[in-house]
Structure formats: C-alpha cells, structure tokens
C-alpha cells in the first residue's frame, strides 16, 4: 500500500492527466491508456485509484473546479476593495492562456455529460453553487462598501456568471464576433454598470 503522501501525489498526477485528455480529446474519446501515458504511470495503477472510467472522469471534473478556485485564492486578498476584487476575479477567468482555456474545455465537457448523467448534474449543482456563492459574497461586500449598486446580490451574481459562461463558450469555439478581447470588453463594461459611479446600460456593451 503506497504511503498517504505518495497516494495524494499519484491521484494528482492522474487527475491532472485526465483533465488534459478531456481538454484535448473530449470525454467520449478519453481512454485510460491515454491518461496513464500523460501521467507517466501504468494503466493498472490508474485503475487502482479509479476503478472505472466514470469514477475517473467524475473526480477529474471536481478536481478541475477545485484547482480553478485554488489558483484564484490570492486574487481575493490582493485587492483592497470588493469592486477591484470582482474585476480581477472575472478577468482571471478569461480563456486567454493555455491553462485557463483547458479548464474551460473541461467545464464544457462537464456540462454536456451532465445532460445525461444525474450524478454529474448533482456535482455541477454543488460546485457551481460554490462559484456563485463566491461572486455573491464579493458583490455583497462591495455593496456594503458603497462601491456596487444596491440590489439582490444573488441576482447580480447570476447575471455575471451567466454572462461569463456564455461569452467564454463563444470565445472557445472561435467565434469571429466574440474574441477574447471582445469578451473582456463586455465583462469590463458589465462590472462598470454594477459600480456606483456608472449607470450606463448593459446593452451598450453589445453594440
């Protein structure tokens, strides 16, 4: 039996490799042998940690989300006010670097599979609830600071989250009308409309 530290390290290797395969090839094309090759482990060892492909993929989807939040923890402490924190947090989710784009591709695969898998729907509901809660709390703090417009923080968070998701999917599929730069412009404008010093209509961002 491997030591606990070795087990944690190997699980990390396997989940990271699984996310890479999902990002590059998609869920349907994922093979345990590909995951093992990327992880530089044997297929038998992958099966030791994850008995089935389904177990592996579910764990990879959850790991992808946890990793995304972990990479952004410093953002929450880097800025002195909630409005700047919100802007930086959103900016960090723009799929303009390799790691963030790969994470978005895994997210897209999660959503597709959740259409057919009740367990994945539950997983999506739980981890997406955490993501919405983070945005909601930042907005609530910004309202308390007088920097974000009054209103239901949950509603405002849902507007932001749905906007980011929709724009990111368009950017990922290479839309000529929704480039990364355009996505950033729309997100920046939306944050401005939520700021106390700006009351410009959101429609202006859509041209």
UniProtKB/TrEMBL annotation:
**Which residue intervals are the DNA-binding region?**
31-50
Q: Which species is listed as the source?
A: Thermomonospora curvata (strain ATCC 19995 / DSM 43183 / JCM 3096 / KCTC 9072 / NBRC 15933 / NCIMB 10081 / Henssen B9)
Entry keyword set: DNA-binding, Repressor, Transcription, Transcription regulation
Q: Which domain of life is it from?
A: Bacteria
Q: Which GO terms describe its molecular function?
A: DNA-binding transcription factor activity; transcription cis-regulatory region binding
Q: Which InterPro entries match?
A: BetI_C (IPR039538), Homeodomain-like_sf (IPR009057), HTH-type_TetR-like_transc_reg (IPR050109), HTH_TetR (IPR001647), Tet_transcr_reg_TetR-rel_C_sf (IPR036271)
Domain HTH tetR-type residues, every copy: 8-68
Name of this chain's protein: Transcriptional regulator, TetR family
Q: Which Gene3D superfamilies match?
A: Tetracycline Repressor, domain 2
């Amino acid at each position: 039996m491997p030591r606990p530290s070795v087990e944690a390290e190997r699980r990390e290797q396997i989940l990271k490799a699984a996310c890479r395969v999902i990002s590059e090839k998609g869920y349907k094309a994922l093979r345990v042998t590909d995951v093992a090759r990327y992880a530089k482990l044997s297929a038998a060892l992958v099966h030791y940690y994850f008995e089935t492909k389904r177990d592996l993929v579910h764990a990879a989807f959850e790991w992808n989300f946890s990793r995304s939040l972990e990479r952004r923890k410093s953002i929450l402490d880097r800025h002195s006010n909630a409005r700047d924190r919100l802007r930086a947090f959103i900016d960090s989710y723009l799929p303009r670097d390799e790691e963030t784009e790969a994470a978005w591709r895994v997210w897209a695969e999660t959503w597709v599979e959740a259409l057919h898998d009740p367990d994945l729907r539950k997983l999506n509901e739980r981890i997406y609830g955490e993501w919405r809660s983070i945005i909601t709390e930042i907005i609530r703090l910004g309202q308390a600071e007088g920097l974000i417009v009054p209103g239901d923080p949950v509603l405002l968070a849902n507007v932001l989250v749905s906007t980011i998701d929709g724009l990111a999917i368009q950017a990922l599929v290479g839309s000529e009308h929704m480039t990364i730069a355009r996505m950033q412009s729309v997100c920046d404008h939306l944050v401005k409309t939520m700021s106390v010093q700006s009351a410009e209509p959101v429609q202006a961002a859509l041209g």
